[in-house]
Amino acid sequence: MDEGLSTLDIVLIQRHILGVQSLNNPYLVIAGDIDANEKINSLDLVSLRKVILGTVTEFPNQQKSWKFIPASLSFADSNHPWPMTEKMLYPNFQQNKNNQNFVAVKIGDVNNSIVLNVDGDPTEARTNKTLSFLTERVTASKGETVRIPVYAEGFKDLSGFQMTTHFDPEVFSFAGVESGEIEITDAHVGVFDNKPGILTTSWNSNQPENLDNDQVAFYWVLTAKKEVDTDQIFVASSQITTAAAYDSSLKSCKVEYRSKNESESSANVFVLRQNVPNPFTNQTTISFTLPSDEQADLKIMDVAGKVVYSSSKWYDKGTHHVNIDKSVVRQSGVFYYQISAGSFTATKKMIFIE
To answer: Least C-beta-crowded within 10 Å: which of 7, 91, 152, 175?
Structure first.
């Protein structure tokens, strides 16, 4: 039910509530009524965010994912299109009827971004910018709870962001989130008991915000399960909540995590990073950086050198993340993954435990 839904929809519904920018037709107003009470308010934002975070799978009050409204239906008030019907009635049906059309409304999708066929393209406007969340090296002893500052590079004129965050559940357990320069609470974060090491985030602001690179956006709070000394803790992906950020003009851009200790020139060199988590039991993420636009070949091999997975894809310059499911490796053991791009080749070891 979450297809076509994003934090950008929350931004637009919030603007409508505040009177900054009204939803401009009755169908969008109907889409913004998340809890089916024939009005739009802050409770709709709360309900929509839970779906985007993946913590719930249904809208409240038995609200359906779609409504189908007769195209012939007229609305006396476009800003308050209720009551309305989803039926066409024919009390004396005696002849064929033509042009009996319905308008499909996807609840929550107020920017009409849902793609309804395999050849369709997302309608969200995009930029080539990247919002990079930076973390410093973390040193902790077993049982210690650490408050990890998350800096933001590219946090300019930003209305919101969302992502799925991965960390190694064998090394850390989640203890909370705290505000930095942006106000963020537990309501902006999805936590899953059956998916340790995975968090989802959906955040937005009433007014576009700007942060300098040395300002802490927010803090992740984790408890170490063992001795820790690492500068790579988090990886961003779109596994549950799609990784994207939105500026004030409603254009989206990429989101990533990087180590703050990386040199400024690191984006111009080839880097293959250790998969996270490692060892893994369900899914792991392989991250790498390319110094230019080029084709990259990824292979995963067992200890005997047999290739169990391979892919070849054209990537843009920058950092990329590939999610690997346990079904790829199938049985417990040590595996090696290798990235080749141009004249560069790098190999690292990973461990799968059932």
So the answer is: 91
Q: pTM value?
A: 0.77
Q: Is residue 271 part of a domain?
A: yes
Question: Does residue 350 have a pLDDT over 70?
Answer: yes
Domain count, the chain: 3
In a domain, 225, yes or no: yes
3-state secondary structure of 330: coil
Please, which residues have CB within 8 angstroms of residue 37's CB and are 6 or more apart in sequence?
A: 61
Residue 122 pLDDT level (bands cut at 50, 70, 90): low
**What distance in Å separates the CA atoms of residue 179 and residue 101, rounded to the nearest whole number?**
49
Complete DSSP assignment for 199-220: EEEEEEEEEEE---TTSEEEEE
Pairwise CA distance, residues 69 & 77, whole Å: 16
The answer to whether residue 120 is domain-embedded is no
Q: Give me the DSSP letters along 75-117.
A: -S-TT---S--S----TT--S------EEEEETT-TT-----S
Task: Summarize the confidence of residues 143-155 as an average pLDDT.
Answer: 93
pLDDT digits (tens, 9 = 90+) for 150-199: 999 889 999 999 999 999 888 999 999 999 999 999 999 999 998 889 99
Q: Does residue 50 contact residue 10 with C-beta atoms inside 8 Å?
A: no
CA-based nearest residue to 108, from 157, 159, 53: 53
Of the ranges 15-19, 119-123, 249-253, which one carries the lowest mean pLDDT score? 119-123
Same domain, 252 and 285: no
Those residues whose C-beta lies under 8 Å from the C-beta of residue 205, and which sit 6 or more positions away, are 158, 159, 160, 182
Q: Specify whether the CB–CB gap between 149 and 160 falls below 8 A.
A: no
